[in-house]
Amino acid sequence: MKGNALGYLLHRKIHNQIVNFFKKPVRLIYVVILLAMLIVTLIGGNSDDGSSDRVLRDFSELTAGLNALLLLIFCTTFNSGLSNGGTFFRMADVNYLFPSPLNRMNILFYALIQQIGTSMLIGFFILFQYTMLHVKYGLSFGGLFLIFIVYSVNVFLSQTLAMFVYTFVSDSDKKKRTAKAIFYMLILALVAYVGFSVLQGKDDILKAAVQAANSLPVCLFPFAGWQGAFAASILIENYLSALLWLSLSIAVFLLMLVAMSRSKRDYYEDVLASAEAVQTTVDAAKGGVVPEATPRNIKVGKTGIGRGQGASVFFYKHLLENRRASKIVIKPMSLIFIICTILFAVFAKGAGLMAIFAFSAYILIFSIALGRFNRELTKPYIYLVPEPPFSKMVFALAETLPSELLESVLIFLPVSIIMEAPAELCILCIFARLSFSILFLASSILIDRIWGASLSKVAGIFIYLFADLILILPGVGLAVLFNVLGINLISSSFTIIFSLMLSNIPIAALVIYLCRNMLQYAET
Amino acid sequence: MLKVEHVTKKYGKLTANNDISFNVGEGQIAVLVGPNGAGKSTIIKCISGLLRFDGNITIGGFDNKSIEAKRLISYIPEMPAVYELLTVAEHMEFIKRAYRLPDDGYDKYLLERFEMLENRDKPGKELSKGMQQKLSICCALLHKPRVIIFDEPMIGLDPHAIKELKHLFVELRDQGCALLISTHMLDSVENFWDVAHIMIKGSFAASKYNALADNGEKSLEELFFEITEGKAAEVQQ
User: Which residue in the set A309, A320, A521 is minimally distant from B50, CB to CB?
Assistant: First the structure.
């Protein structure tokens, strides 16, 4: 059979994915809903265009924010890729393509093309930010689409660069450490530069931070900085500058590819381990098992669970597992959310603490995870241990609370300083956010209890959002009731947040109690 | 000790187990044999309390979902149930604490018996599949259960561990435990079984008691192939 085998493979994959997509009409419904939401966002964003009293914020804030986002995504993706040699390949590629007589550079291109699609999917959420960005900065949809493309390309380039560097350093731990050290020093230098600039412009911290984030040293940061500068140049219609930054990105990307093709080092071996890991994850996910990203070499350290009897041992076991799973208490994604919330507080200082609290609770909807509880459900012990199911459930869920509390503290301490909020409101926000964590955990449990594995991912997200909304309503009702009755505790913000917290805890406890029999069976 | 009465398990329209009834008494080894997809793992999961079902299952007279029953039963799944981040010794500590067991040294005895003692500080992730299975068995036996359910226990074990496990089956039977072992490898259960149930398409196609004397009956293997290869439409033993 003649023809390009890789082209055929790519074509068939895309074709089969499309055919498969139309075989499940429910997916079409999701797409229609998503498109409808996007259209609503567009219309909503444009509805205020005729208003003459609308004051737009400084556009450089937007480009600074974009730079920060690109750098954050680039650094986390690159770091992860450098640690485990992140790969674009699957085991089927490894088994069929690697031993074949096909040119290895062509194979690499095939993988890169596939990856572009995945990267674009990751950036899709940006399109939903239209209303906010249009109203605040006057950003057009074309501008937003440019940001979406730049974001996706940034994800793609960070993965490519990580794979490129990994190929050259993977044969020696010393080389790996050196590469990481250089990378961390670059980040440190950047943070130090921005920090120093902010300190110098203490009179107007926001202005100083924005100027620093748009400055040349930040724009010179490999790929993320170049992409940010390219987008900013287009947005401010400086096309010559845009061309320069784009040329730099393309030139370095091509150089990387040439270096990989000329290198005597074979990238096959480097991607094999990570391809196997990806395959294990995919297989595990298909079997309903929650995969865990454990370190390649687990540092055991101090041994022994040490505490707990009966159901409570699950909690102490989880603490031990968490310690071994990662040196950092806060997960990288949570760290991104924390930084986003703090940045939001900086930019929306005038909106008040209530708005920041609402934003942090909104972000929590997407960042809350059942953690080890879901993984526990894949092992028989939680069902077999002769303890009451409610106790087992509470102790198996409790592990998430210390990290959620820490996250709340890390958010609301700086936010309260930025907003100049009183101490009691800061403390209340910390515990109220924790109550939302528990409420959203309960919401996830509720959905697992009712639908379990029978629910598709997209449907699960929609129902989860709907359930969150329903569970929050009693708190909102309580706040309204307090207002109607004229009850005011310290301040109106304090009263609202307090009433939400007051409602969240019993609602969550009730939901978890009603779902306790989830641990009677490994199925719903 | 283990009583299964009219258990039916359906997944939507698919009937995985259809009206299954059998008992396993104290000091008895029952084996479930059958081809892939016969419903062996499903009935085992129903007995272990992991799946919903229609019918009735009791362990030592207690409903199989009760806390009392959970104290008596143990289940060794086909895929080893090991926590990647816990060491071997910590697995044993976890079970001891979860079941509120005394510190009587039985954990060390089990680890020694399954040659796991030198690996006691190794995390689950670094164990081979066979070692994970051995650890899974040690965890299951630690609370000295009276009813023990094995789902394809020999898979992944080295010959020595298989030999040790077979000895253990007989030993546990002699101690009065009720054992239910599911397998599709007939030679792995050899002659230590007391009763064998051959499953086809979610039902028992035949049940055969292990007769000591050669009374002219077909061997388990002969009977199995006769049924599974469709040479007999209905077999009554």
Answer: A521
